[in-house]
Amino acid sequence: MAKIESKKNAVKYVNGIDKVAGLTAKELQALESVCDKYSFRANDYYLSLIDWKNENDPIRRIIIPDAAELDDNGKLDACNEKAITVAPGVQHKYKHTALLLCNETCGGFCRYCFRKRLFMEDNAEVAVDTTQGIEYIKSHPEITNVLLTGGDPLLLSTEHLEYIIKELHAIEHVKIIRIGSKMPSFNPMRITEDGALLRMLRKYSAPETRIYIMTHFDHPNELTPQAIDAIQALNDAGVTLCNQCPILKGVNDDPNILADLYNKLAFSGCAPYYLFQCRPTAGNKPYAVSMTRAYFMFEESKKYASGTAIRAKYVMSHSSGKIEIIGIDEKHIYLKYHRAQNTDLIGKVFVYKRDDNAYWLDDLEPVS
């Protein structure tokens, strides 16, 4: 089992862009207005991964604001999650899966976050008190999967997180409890230095009710020795690990980088799961890659990765469902509903006219 050290390496959180030592006074001034609109948060560990001499450093791109975020006037709730909110902190879009938004902050704020609205004032979508949400899940026996999200559930205290997991574990029809988290990337010491967390996960990840952690590694540089130790510790605790990340301009939109990420994840015991199209959320356009470019880059990356590393599916989480981009030829883009709110759509293939400037389903013109 991975060694669990003391908390001597606990990270310090940075909640103001002016406290980032690697930025010049001119850069700080240029980013002040961005942070007034879209919140900034990081920590000293994650910031230490940045090569400040490289203006195009991928970790910098993930966590440090970009002035171009203000040029995008997209919607904050681009996928209309409000429409599938059925109880305080509960989203129920797919028949067998419910989302429980149980925390309203993260270990850091990714600049391309599709739920950045949660980190703004007057947000009421997250339920710190999960009582009503758990009751909703109890009353819907079709729900077999519950995803704890937010915000980042692993930023909760272990005691609080155990309360939620214990309540869900006691529901007979809940067979998988998923935790969506970027903490293995933002702060792996949250895992390796908390023996109580690992013991709790081992206790509740039982043969017939598994705990999955959906990690969020975007670039190979995030897979530090500390992060790999965290992956090992979670594997030792009986947790199943899957990684999902978006395709991001200037971060992983290169087939060699993506293959390197997938190989390192597979070698470490964290299965690649989804590669997401960047959602058209307000402020996200500077990070988005067109569907055509992303598709061919994803396919090219498979040439450089092992079989265990190329299991990910390239999808977009549209308001109508999870849509897989399955093929592009000279004239057409071929899409398939991998998941859908309307179950009749699952597995259906749809054909659209190829548009190399399209970033989202709504940008495409269907073939008549």
N- to C-terminal separation? 58 Å
How many strands, what sense, and barrel or not for the largest sheet? 12 strands, mixed
Strand content: 15-25%
- When the domains are counted, the total is 1
The CATH architecture assignment turns out to be Alpha-Beta Barrel
What best-fitting shape do the alpha-carbon axes yield?
A: globular
Return the CATH topology: TIM Barrel
Q: Assign the structural class, choosing from mainly alpha, mainly beta, alpha/beta, alpha+beta, or little secondary structure.
A: alpha/beta
Q: Which range best describes the helical content: under 10%, 10-25%, 25-40%, 40-55%, 55-70% or over 70%? A: 25-40%
| Radius of gyration, CA atoms, in whole angstroms | 20 Å
Alpha plus pi helix count: 11
| N-to-C series of helices and strands | EHEHHEEEHEHEHHHEHEHEHEEEE
Fourth-tier CATH superfamily name: Aldolase class I
As residue ranges, the low-confidence spans are 1-8
CATH class: Alpha Beta
